[in-house]
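Dear colleagues,

For the upcoming journal club I promised to circulate an example of a predicted protein-ligand complex. I picked one with flavin-adenine dinucleotide because it came up in last month's discussion. The inputs are reproduced below in full, followed by the predicted structure.
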Amino acid sequence: MEQRFDAIIAGGGIAGSTSAAALARLGLKVLICEAGLPNERRLAGELVHPPVLSDLYALGLLAPLRGAGGFPVYGFALFRGADDEGLLLGYSEISGGRPASIAVEHARMTRALLDATASQHNVTLWYGARVLTVDDEGDTPRVTVCRAGVERQLSCRLVVSAEGRGAKLRRRAGIEVERGQPSWMVGYKLAHGRLPYPGYGHLFIGGPSVTLAYQISRTEVRVMFETGPDRDVPRDLLAPLPRPFRDDVERGIADGARQTAKVFGLQPERSSHGNVAVVGDAGGCVHPLTASGIAFCTGDPMRLARAVEGTLASGLDVELALRRYERARARPMRTRTALGPALVDTLSGTSPGSRLLRRGLFRYLARSPRGRAASLALLSTRQSSSAVMAREYAAVLMHALASLRDDDGDGRPSRLLPAVAELALRGTSTLRQML
Ligand SMILES: Cc1cc2nc3c(=O)[nH]c(=O)nc-3n(C[C@H](O)[C@H](O)[C@H](O)COP(=O)(O)OP(=O)(O)OC[C@H]3O[C@@H](n4cnc5c(N)ncnc54)[C@H](O)[C@@H]3O)c2cc1C
């Protein structure tokens, strides 16, 4: 006899597992199909922000995540050169939030969440099964799944595409996407890497792009570079790393065991169509520097489950639920999409205006505890108001201008004028996008 499911989830990554757990908690019978991505060879998200822990706790998945190992993360340490002592931004500065989070190797995190979800009530996992198509005509979509070489058709009420960036069902459902320019990330796992502040996500600024490093276990550090298409790490990316960490990195690069990823921003025009909802990376992504991907992999399922729950009293109304999901997701996604590129440009842009903005950001963060808390709340997705983001960006602009009076600046008018002109133009256009 054919098994019946209320919801079918395509993809058993972080977004797929948490979607299944969130919907199963409402009493829906859920099937997760996972095609079998070789996560061990992938370079992908490992450092999660505190809101992820709260979502996972609500879904009974926090203990399994902690069981996967990892290392605590208390915030971020920003460095502007090899001799900089670092500027610390602590999660504990955000009022009412969790003071610490975690970083776990990607494959271990994904596997732990999928296994734990599969053991929950109302959840069935088909590993090695790929969702091929959704025939979304009418109330009950017909879903074609290929499992062990055999195609079968299933019916359900709701289909969730948790297929990652390259989601095929999203395309088939007719959801258009805007795709940004690609760049390449190269990652190394360093045994006994000596980070200046173990327990913090490190951002090393000063090269042509920002280098990210954090502890993923007691004895291992992940370091990630943004490179060109040849994926070689240029010397000028190593220059801003303080010693002895730089020695550890050079040794890791010489050993040669690396993982790579092609990254690009992706912005779908909507988050659902017919009976299909997109979650996690299938619903869009930004530069990994923000480390916000996993927060959407757990936040989207929570939003979806809340929208579904609101219709259950009179029987599952998928159309209404997905309309509510669309609305609930629009604001955080808009803030994330504006914040990602603005942050990348501020931290690594090479134009005179970007350099001035960077001075403004560091000045602001060093002088304003409220600014540090607000910036980290935005970065960690705890805060998603575009008005707050615009207010914080405006504060950075003001500090950039105020920094022109600081003693350590290069006050020559020939240098300042182009920077201020660029800042004024860019600041206005970024603020307009944010609001
Ligand atoms: C280099 C890099 C660094 C990053 N660093 C961070 C970070 O530090 N913090 C952070 O929060 N985020 C980070 N991210 C982002 C984070 O990795 C992603 O947001 C997250 O992994 C996306 O998870 P997902 O479940 O949406 O998609 P995926 O992890 O891509 O999972 C999709 C799954 O669906 C399966 N699948 C696909 N199609 C089908 C189908 N039709 N049927 C069945 N199964 C299917 C695939 O096999 C796969 O397992 C980083 C990303 C990159 C590239």
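Two points we might discuss: Residues 7-69+104-179+266-335 form a domain with the FAD/NAD(P)-binding domain fold (CATH 3.50.50.60). The CA atoms of residues 397 and 427 lie 7 Å apart.

See you all on Thursday,
B. R.
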